[in-house]
Design brief:
CarboxyPept-like_regulatory, Carboxypeptidase-like regulatory domain-containing protein, twelve-stranded antiparallel barrel
Amino acid sequence: MKRIYTTCFLFFIVFSVCNAQFVLRGIVRDSTTGEYVIGANVVVAHVPTVHETVADMNGAFSLKYHKPTAEVHVSFIGYITRTVTLDTARETTISLHIDQAVDDELRRRKVRMRLDVGYYGDAKYARTGVMAVMPVQGIGSKDWMMFTAFKYWKGDGNDGLDASISKHMRGKLGILAHNIFLSYRSLNYRDAGFHWTQYRTLLVRYLPAGFAVDVGAGYNQISLNNEIPRDDTWRLSGSLGLVKRFRLKGNLGIHTNFNYMPGYRFFEAGAFKEFGSRKFAFFTAIVKYYRYQAMEGIMLSLAVNIFSTQVFCCDSPKIHFDYFHAMK
């Protein structure tokens, strides 16, 4: 009997040790700035679907594991993934280095060079406003990046709100689109007396040598004086022919567009340049020639991007409102 008790006791000890929960801790920082990498993904290398977590507002994380040490992958959008060994005996500081290829892609997105597809050249559309762009990445994701953008504008009694989600796929995708956009827009033209709501989807295909092509469709609702929508229509919201070219030389980016749709075309060129010791801000200048039906003119845009927020100013003095008034 004593032997049985001893065996059971030893079995219990071994079982308890094997099932003990150790806590692995660490802090994730940017290797250049030393700032916390909030939301960094921490995944145990061999069992990623079971043991995973994200860094908090202070870059810190804790991860329960059944062993006192573990090999983990630490990643975040725009950084090179690191594989490190964590030990319960100490809190590990992990420095992530910027992925230059992804960083270049992020910098391209800082430059909002083209008039949003589906809009016409409107002097009062976006005279002033603020736009915030936030990158998001799922835990353990390697080939997917998601961007959310919110833009509010106001001028001459008109105002509006844009909200969009962009899914960027970095892997080898064959003929599939490299970007998928979904957006919602709500526009109030008080001087014209109508409200315009638009739902849009847009596919973007990147080509060799820095070229890209967009195509998409949108659903529009137009109501007069906030009454029941009187016009529900499907309209081409992408481009029959939009060719974009982007070059990045040092900290200077140069962008050109040509867009052709029935009754509407424009050519656009712009540039942006980083400034600041940590390159946290961008200055953007844009010049665009447009032609819509009988209207044509030049639109000038100046913008400053600070972190992920863009403060912009646009002016297009040769635009007229004949088309919008005719919609009444």
